[in-house]
Amino acid sequence: MWYPVDTSTPSLSTATSAVCVIIAAYNCQETIIRAIASALAEPEATEVVVVDDASTDDTVATAHSADDGSGRLRILTQLQNAGPSAARNRAIQESQAPWIAILDSDDFFMPGRLKGLLAFAQQADLIADDLWQVPEDNVTGPRRSLLGTSLLAPQSITFAEFVMSNVTRADRQRGELGFIKPLIRRQFLTEYRITYQEQMRLGEDYELYARALAMGGRLLLVPAQGYVSVIRLHSLSGRHSETDLLHLRDCDHALMKIEHLSPVDKQAIRQHYLSIDCRLQWRLLIIAIKNRKMGDIISTFLRPFPVPWYLVKQLALEVYIRSFPKKPSNISINS
Fold it and tell me: Within this chain, do residues 174 and 224 fall inside the same structural domain, yes or no?
C-alpha cells in the first residue's frame, strides 16, 4: 500500500522529535570519528551513545576525540565482548530520547537524514529509508541504493512483505529489508518489551524488526534520506559462523509462536527458515566432506525441501568451477 507524503503534518515539538543515535563499536578506530561526527551534526540527535564492545585497538580514545563539546556524546564500555545486540540493548537502556536510530560504526549519516525521517513520525513506529551503498575505498564516490527503483514513494510494509524480502532468490536483485536502519519509537519497544536477542550476532536487526511488526508495529519505508552504508570486504557480518546461522534460522521458531499471525505470515516465516537452513546445511556439508564423515554428509540431505535440491545445485556449481578453473565465470557459491 502506497502513501503520499503528508504535507499537512504539523511540526513536531523538540520533546517528541529528539533522537538517540546508538553506535555499537568494536575495533573501528579508523571509522568511528566519521560515524560520530555525522550523528552529532544532526540537530535532532539529542543523544549519541557509543558502546565499545571490548575493543582491542584505540576505538575508545578515538571516539572521545570526536566529542564536539555539546554534552550529547556518551561513550560506554563493555568489560567483555558480547556482540552488537548486547551493546545496543545497553545503549537503549541508558538513554531516554523518544526515538532511537541505529548507526553502524563504519557507516555515516548525510546532513538532514534525521529531519527527513521525522517528517513521517506520526505515520509509523519504525521509519526507514532506502540506503546508499558505497565501497570503503571510495565513500564519497558513486553510490547505489539498496532498493533502487522499487521504492519511488513512501510504502507501508507488512510483516509478510518484510520477512519475504529477506529470503534470497535467484530471480531478483538483493534488497533485504533486514539491512535497513529505521528510526524506532522507544515507547513501542518498551510497551511490548522488545529488545535485541543477545545470542544473535547475525541477523539481529531482522529479528527485532520482524518481532516488532508481528506485535503490531507499523513500518514505513521511504526513499533515501541519507544513511550511507559502507560496504567492507572484511566486515563482521561477512565472517559469520555456523552457530550464527543456526541462531538466525532458529529465531524463526520464536516468531512463529507470536499470536495473531496470519497463514500468509506463517508461510513467510517458513520460507525464511528454509532459506537460512539452505545456507547452514551447505556450510555443514562442506565441513562433513572435509572431515570425511558420511553420516554428517547424509544428514544434510535429510532436511525438508528445498534444502536437498539447493545442496545438489551448489555441488554441481562446485564441480563446474573446479573443472574449468581458467574459464572466466561470474558464478559464485554463497555460504
Answer: yes
